[in-house]
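A sample copied in:

***
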Amino acid sequence: MTPASGPILSDTAAALCMLFIFLVPLAGAGIALINTGLGRARSAAHQMMSSLCAVSIAALVYFVFGFSWQGFPGGPEHVVNVGGKGWSWIAAQPLFLRHVALNGSPASLVALLGMVSVGLAALIPLGSGADRWRLSATCLSTVLLAGVTYPIFAHWVWGGGWLAQLGENYGLGRGFVDAGGSSTIQAVGGLTALSVAWILGPRRGKYTTEGMPTAIPGHNSTFVVLGCMLAMAGWWGLNSAGAVLFTGAGPGDAALVAINTTLCAAASALMAAMITGVRFGKPDLSLTANGWIGGLAASSAACIFVRPPEAAAIGMVAGTLVTFSVEWFELRMSVDDPGGAISAHAMGGLWGVLAVGVIARVPPVGGNGAGENSGQWLAQLVGLATLIGFVLPLTYGLNWVLNRIHPQRVGPEGERQGMDLHELGAGAYPEFMTHGDDFSER
């Protein structure tokens, strides 16, 4: 069989796209540092170990069969006919990346981007499960994310699936659009984080007997800020590579993408700092960092379709949404999310998807880049509904079954002792006392 390559890219575009993809692991390093810094000191080594395992497992599972289900535009797929129209619901690519031209072809670049992107998505739930999620359970949950949830939805969006076909089959603009992964990476990872937090329950001592949340501050703000800076560099590559591969952008458009990404994150972080400063008298670092990441998550979908002022506006909304979302989940829903992963990634990503239909100007395929397609907002709304109505129940159901077979939460003694000593036998800071905080049973 002749190796599949997909659409044609110039040598320059392919080379630059590969360089963009090489930046994406920096975003993973940033998220790992943020998750660690916002957790307890006695679980820091465990959090980093979980991050390394999650990225490794995600890459291997995606290599074995994840990419087979995601595929690439123009590749083999399974199609169902509904209403006289063909709808692609899953790819039919051979296992182990067989029959993919691994020579810088668009298909190989999609596979490489998917391999690092699924690892990025797998890191997100670690923030919501911090201080109580067993290492073995994180590994098994990552298998489900990388092998089922992520590739199925990624095919619908990036592999020529039915969401992308909404424009062709129903005339809804260009179909569902997500250049850099606000939905496929951020929302999928964030909704998985929500499922994990629901299943694990809150940390002991997080809520009083009256049900009021108590503050459990993160242990290392330096990690958090460094993680934010690394994440921005990774997002430059992620959004630029996605724009080239999935929207037909040229390599020169990377400047616009990077500017929009930066402005969105900056506006979101400053909005979070301002809101917390007004409400609490002093700005809150952890919420500002969550606002920064929420802005990055929101920037991805529309990064190539908006001008800089519009990107800043998207960031301002993201910062506001993330700040109030953290409080809402913690106070109203009793969801303990130490890393703010649900608000930053799920809420930021969902807003980014919606912003394409509300703010962005998406040209038709083959158009001249001017104007706005009628019905684009409806295509984005269908994608949003699919995330909430299908992806969230799917990822919750998969993790619920896993929890019944292999309990995901560490026992009370392990949580009291700390995940580092309980599961790894050594702490991240052996020269310091890391167990001085009070531990109380709810």
Summary: The two ends are 61 Å apart (CA to CA). The first helix runs from residue 11 to 37.
